[in-house]
Every structure is written in C-alpha cells, then in structure tokens.
Design brief:
Elements (H helix, E strand, L loop, with lengths): L2 H9 L1 H97 L23
C-alpha cells in the first residue's frame, strides 16, 4: 500500500472504526484495572468482616463457657449449703427427740398430778386470811 492509500485508509470509515475500537479497548482496560482494584478492596473488607465475626464468635463462646462455669460453681455451693443445713436440722431434730423421750420417761417415773380445783367459789368468810 502506498502512502496515499494509507492516508486515505486512516481518514476513511475504517480509520474511524479502528479509532473507536481502540478507544473502547482502552476504556475497558482502564475499567478492568479499576474493577480489579475495587474487587480487591471488597475482598479485603469481606476478609475483615469474616475475621471480626470469628473473633466475636470466639469471645461469645469464651464468655458463655465462663458463665457456665460460674453458674455450676454457684449451684455446687447451694447444694453444699443445702446439705449442710439439712445435716444441722437433722441433728437438732434428733436432739429434740431425745429430750422429749427423756421428759416422757421422767413423767412416767414421777407423775405430777394436777391439784384438784374447787369449782364453786368460796364465800368471803370461808376464804382464809391471805396473810396466813
């Protein structure tokens, strides 16, 4: 092709199409680089969110284990206190039973009859001198 033909082809419809194609390719290349950067930033943000989520999950699990442990300790203390209280009450009940049995046995050995109470009131002259 001669110089003249090249000049004609560079200014003709083919040249315009080629220039448009080149501009589109450059735009797509620039957009692809920008999209790659955006994708990398989005991936980085997503990775950060995932790490924070894992960290939060681990913290919740740790706190849950701690709370479970404290609750188990508290229940154990309550059970021990209930057991101790029950033992003390059982001892007091046994002591009361022994004391009652002793009082009942003493009553059988030495009965203490109640004095007879006169049901009719005495006349004032029948009542004795209170100073006697």
């Amino acid at each position: 092709m001669s110089e003249a033909e090249k000049e004609d082809s560079s200014s003709g419809p083919e040249a315009v199409g080629e220039a448009l194609r080149s501009a589109v390719e450059k735009t797509l290349a620039a957009t692809a680089e920008s999209a790659t950067g955006t994708r990398e930033r989005a991936q980085g943000l997503l990775d950060d969110v995932v790490k924070r989520g894992q960290s939060a999950r681990e913290e919740v699990a740790r706190r849950g284990e701690s709370a479970t442990s404290r609750l188990a300790d508290a229940i154990g203390e309550l059970r021990a206190a209930d057991s101790e209280s029950l033992d003390r009450l059982t001892g007091r009940l046994d002591a009361l039973e022994r004391r009652l049995a002793a009082l009942e046995a003493a009553q059988k050995i030495h009965p203490n009859p109640l004095p007879e109470i006169e049901t009719t009131p005495l006349e004032p002259d029948e009542q004795g001198d209170p100073r006697d």
